[in-house]
Design goal:
Rossmann fold, Asp_carbamoyltransf_Asp/Orn-bd (chains A, B, C), 2 domains, 321 residues, five-stranded parallel beta sheet, ArgF'-like (chains A, B, C), arginine biosynthesis (chains A, B, C), N-succinylornithine carbamoyltransferase (chains A, B, C), amino-acid biosynthesis (chains A, B, C), homotrimer, 12 strands
Chain lengths: 321, 321, 321
């Protein structure tokens, strides 16, 4: 594996999940694989779970880790070519990425979308340039349009907790006070769509009108504007807010009640409830669910380690070839 | 040891000091104890000595360390239950602590008091909730009301430098330009009170009227408003500013001269002078003392490593059981 | 080696370059040298290349590393003696440096000049006090007047890429939008002057009138205000902006075109082009050069690791004696 950016970078979902679960059973089994190897984690935006879980995964593999919080250093990167750099950007991504690639064997990059320039965000301009210029394998720590370590984590968590061979999985939009990226739901949708193709899940998306995700992520999914209908017989409900893709980055008023609570949960097949965190309690998701027996959110966050570790392991194995 | 929050978490003070001194004599003797163990250090407020000394202690024990500076990330935590999180807090401590507990074997937490809400500060609401929800052993890196790693350090330092079996130790209030927490003096007072009970020291507190500490910390101590009187025959003087407990967080004007200098030191038994640092020179404590032979402040700061290391060692031994 | 601050801390330039190149050929050969040793990296100003390369060098040597970003913590240091600290500085460098020296076997310090107080900057007040009070070996990570790890890197890079025994090296001033320190050009000039003395290079400096560097750094160099003249027959062109030393920290308007491009490069002996980075594209240096075959900037940045590693190796060897 030379890049981990989307579900397209993985062949068999079942195989990678099983490999992750074997790492979970034996976290230090491959600690010699990363000896003398350096992982660089570059954050253009803040991170808690992603930073800690990826750092821990790397340490389990015996790697050294260096963290660069570029958001707080005011280290503004230029990404455009052909501009005279006489403004506020202090370094071009061509040099910045290339230099980091000299010091690190593998790099991770987190970069949120602008939510203003749809084309720049959806062509993944920054992430792609970083990959192009750094010259080493890159793992996405969440990019403008995807959060693949989260989605792999989610599939691992679903696999661990499913009670039927092919569970019904529902991605359910939820309210928020801010305009959030589409990265997590896009990514979850493309992973679940592929999991559905591979016979692993049955996948439905529920959101209010106006919150349609870009079609490239939702191939094969059942899509509805009726939350109650979607919840019927659900085995897993994945709760997440996102802003509009069509009216890019906008937030439409939603009059219906889209917050999942115990009453709505009675419509499901005693569904397990998931969320990528951080979660706004009693706005996105009710406290009664988060504190009750159906919540998987902490176990899900815990599994972030094994998703990161299986990706790093595959990259290290590829390096050593 | 599952928690290190106050002197109540330690039975024999003499035993823990001797164990710390044996680690000082042989820093890497237990480096296999922390192998494959992760320490997470969470800072809601800035730190220099605490971060570096605890990191070093963990590395001496062979642990991996991850540092989270949440003060600078604007990662505002919600601690109240039952509120709709539609404001500025981005994550509830229930989730944040639980997730960190999944990635770490031991956690450290630093969180200063508000100095505005006495009840929230003195019930140690934040620290206690963090302990409750994270599910792993927690070491206080200074909380609203206590700084136990500092106090253990101070006892180690007194033990190393005492010339008599039961030295006279004086906690002496000193001036400052800001309103400071009571955590360091509270903690020093409760550790010295217990040390006095165990026959290790004779303990006196001197402060201007209005600067009384909460009584729960000062049981058994001699308390005076007369600095000169307190200094008579002192073997150690521990200099520290704090704001008022009664008029919570307030600073009363003090007309008398409470800054320790060489002249005042002549009243003592050639006392050694201590301070937890950072110290405001010639405001809290005179330069002539800090630069002279009676100052222990650097040796004291150095001992922070062994205080942290003995606490982590005891927690690791408990984990491995 | 107990201090690495200027070219005066190195005897034979050829010997240290060869030692660095042997580390490059075998990065982990000395990984037992740093076992149980702690490197502390103190940044009073931001850093990318220096932090990452020095951290990697230390890890290659088996050291532990702790990073302190004091610029962002608002941990304002007092450096003057005899002042009552009742203002904004929270700790005196006497205590801060001494404490860090207790926790670390070797320290690195980055501190930029004020560009306002020429005397304080050029007496290296802060750096010298830090060295004096910390009590352990100190490596400069760039100080007010010098950046020696960069200059050693540059000499390594020139040695690797030279096609003649004694190449012509030109330091060429370039435009910028901000007033930059003289540290990099000062340091490069003093290293190249010494390299010239030792028969390794032929050294020329080109800058507009008014941009003269302090004479202590440029002994033996040919100095001209004519860029085209300087470029004649050059084997290496080192491009860098700096502000005025005479009118300290000022920026004079420069009407001539001082940006290096491919056309100017035709005057040279197919010169390799160097820059310490970050570089402002098409302001300091043309994109066509940066993206073309004559640029060494990425290889140069990569060599930062070996410069740091040879310095740390020599300090460790001295410690262990």
């Amino acid at each position: 594996m030379k890049k981990f950016f989307s579900v397209a970078d993985v062949d068999s979902l079942e195989a990678i999940v099983q490999e992750a679960l074997s790492l979970k059973a034996n976290p230090n089994a491959y600690e010699h694989l990363g000896k003398h190897k350096m992982l660089g984690l570059v954050f253009l935006n803040p991170s808690l779970r992603t930073r800690l879980s990826t750092q821990k995964a790397a340490m389990n593999l015996g790697m050294n880790v260096m963290v660069m919080n570029m958001d707080k250093d005011g280290w503004a990167l230029e990404t455009r070519d052909g501009v005279v750099m006489n403004g506020t950007t202090v370094e071009h991504i061509r040099e910045a990425a290339a230099v980091m690639g000299e010091y690190c064997d593998i790099l991770g990059l987190r970069s949120f979308p602008s939510l203003k320039d749809k084309e720049a965000d959806y062509t993944e301009d920054l992430f792609n340039k970083f990959v192009k210029y750094c010259g080493v394998p890159v793992v996405s720590l969440e990019s403008a349009t995807r959060h693949p370590l989260q989605s792999l984590t989610d599939l691992i968590t679903i696999t661990e907790h499913k009670k039927v061979a092919k569970p019904k999985v529902v991605l359910a939009w939820a309210p928020h006070v801010k305009a959030l990226p589409q990265a997590v739901p896009n990514s979850f949708a493309e992973w679940m769509s592929k999991a559905q193709e591979q016979g692993l899940v049955d996948f439905t998306i529920a959101h209010p009108a106006g919150y349609e995700l870009a079609e490239e992520f939702t191939q094969g999914a059942t899509i509805t504007h009726n939350l109650e209908e979607a919840l019927q017989g659900a085995d897993f409900v994945y709760v997440k807010n996102w802003s509009s893709y069509k009216e890019y980055g906008q937030v439409y008023p939603v009059s219906d009640n889209w917050m999942l609570d115990n009453q709505k949960l009675t419509l499901t097949n005693d569904a397990k409830v998931m969320h990528c965190l951080p979660v706004r309690r009693d706005l996105e998701l009710s406290s009664e669910i988060l504190d009750g027996p159906n919540s998987l959110v902490i176990k899900e966050a815990s599994n972030r380690v094994w998703a990161a570790q299986v990706v790093l392991k595959r990259m290290l194995e590829n390096l050593n070839k």
